[in-house]
Amino acid sequence: MTFRLRQIDTAASGREIVRETLLDRSSLTIGRAAENEIHLPDLAVEPHQARIALRDDGRIVVQAIGTLGFTLNGAKTTSATVDSRTGAELGFGTYRIAISAEPDGAVALTVRVRTSAGGPWDEADKHKFSLAAVLPGKRRTGWTLAALILVAFLAVPVFSHLTRPAEAQHSVIGDRSWSTGQLNLAHHGLEDSCESCHVKAFEPVSDDTCLGCHKAIHDHADAPQLDVARASGGLGDRALWAVAHRFGKPGPGACSDCHTEHEGLHVPIKPAGQKFCASCHATMDRRLPATSLGNAADFGTAHPQFTARISTGAGSVKTVRVSLDDNPKERSGLSFSHRLHLDPLGGAARMAGNIGAERGYEGVLRCKDCHRPTEDKARFRPIEMERDCEGCHSLVYDRVGPTFRSLTHGNVAQMIAGLRATDRSPSRITGLGLTRPRPGRYSGTGRYHANFAVPVSGEVLLRRALSPGGVCGECHTPDFRNGNWTVKPVALTERYMTTGWFDHAPHLRETCTSCHKAGQSSKASDLLMPKIAQCRTCHMGEDNHKADVPSTCAMCHSYHPGDMAPFSRRPAPLQKSASLQKIE
């Protein structure tokens, strides 16, 4: 029981291609699905439409297994029995299967595509409704259109540019076809003034053109240092740059290497991708051995531990950068315990509950009661004693009638002068053992009332204020210099991480203590800055698609240092590196 399957295809030239296969089995399936023995790739055919079986008497049984059925010699049916010696034609969509008997006893199944309902498709029918007879050939048409494109979109704009007067303000004819897209919204005003950026025809935009408007932009680092730090490419890269320089392209390190335009009106000019930073910073120590910067290529996998800029001593203006791996201690000149203030069962919480309505506290002290964000929610305002502390830590040291006298905070000399000028006796009689008040003008509020207690001098008050439990010594460290009492200067750090940028606004859903372990800190010297591992719970590198926030270098760092740069660095005019000077 053998089927001989012949599949006939027609080439573009009209030549028939015949593929023949012997199938030694008693039945075959027909359908669009590829697993059928007779595969008919036609959408008009069901995936499994019919089965052909060979009986012992040589007859062929065709049975539909789908819902569409088939045609037998042009008649629609769902089952049929065919004598292979007589032959028949089955129809499935656009395919026809001719059944016939072979001399060797095999049953031949010849499959071909029906090309025309009226008969074989001939060459004359192919051109019956075609325009090929009245139009030029494809090659001639292609060359003609190519010439028209060159004239309309190259020759005409070039001729218009070369022949217009130098003072003319109108645009070049046809130059809009050269634009790859609209300018960004920031540059949209230059949409009809191409020469504002493209100063020289057929040359890329130079850095000098960019700096004509962006005057405040300055170098990422000193130009000679940038040339050394930049990773040099291989021979191929140098060859490409040599060709680019011949055509006036600036770089490497030019503005256009990172900032691309003509991307669309509402498409922002995005910062450069991570690879542009990593090309230098991944192996920075190889080219700049003296650098203090660690190698960095990916925030999630190749980034050094954070470094914080802290004061080297109380009141010192000198700061140093220390890795958080070293668990640095800060010397701010204050004595303060976050744990004491945040303890919900402690004395600070009870005091906050007592004065909550007056100061806006919510029963217990919270971070926001002292640390107040700036208007943009990016950072926090400096701590002010009168606003943030005096609600609990009163500066009152004396009372005269209904009036309270307070120490002057922030001016130590003024505070000391005020206390030393205080030389008084108690305002009421104490220690005399009297059981009833004196009458008339000798009463406690009378003109001749006297206090016969021991007077308290201003020097004693000063020492009490500066003692460890005094109104000043409770938070400040007393000091004795040049024969005078004082306190050690306070140095509150405004920004610890000065080489990167952090914005608290996107992190408002997080609690303060999820990053800053303030509830565990009992000393002011504890540096409560989170390490990189804490940030990596959400932020990973640019290519990490499993991270909650895939983060590029530009999310925290700026190529052009500005307000987020180290405080000691001032913006400087942009200098041309050696690579840019070569092309001038």
TrEMBL record:
The keyword Cytoplasm does not apply. Residues 29-93 form the FHA domain. GO terms for molecular function: metal ion binding. It comes from the Bacteria. Its cofactor is heme c. GO terms for cellular component: cell envelope. SUPFAM superfamilies: Multiheme cytochromes, SMAD/FHA domain. The keyword Iron applies. It is found in: Cell envelope. Keywords: Electron transport, Heme, Iron, Membrane, Metal-binding, Transmembrane, Transmembrane helix, Transport. InterPro entries: FHA_dom (IPR000253), Multihaem_cyt_sf (IPR036280), SMAD_FHA_dom_sf (IPR008984), Tetrahaem_cytochrome (IPR012286). This is Cytochrome C. It comes from Croceicoccus ponticola. The lineage of its organism: Bacteria, Pseudomonadati, Pseudomonadota, Alphaproteobacteria, Sphingomonadales.
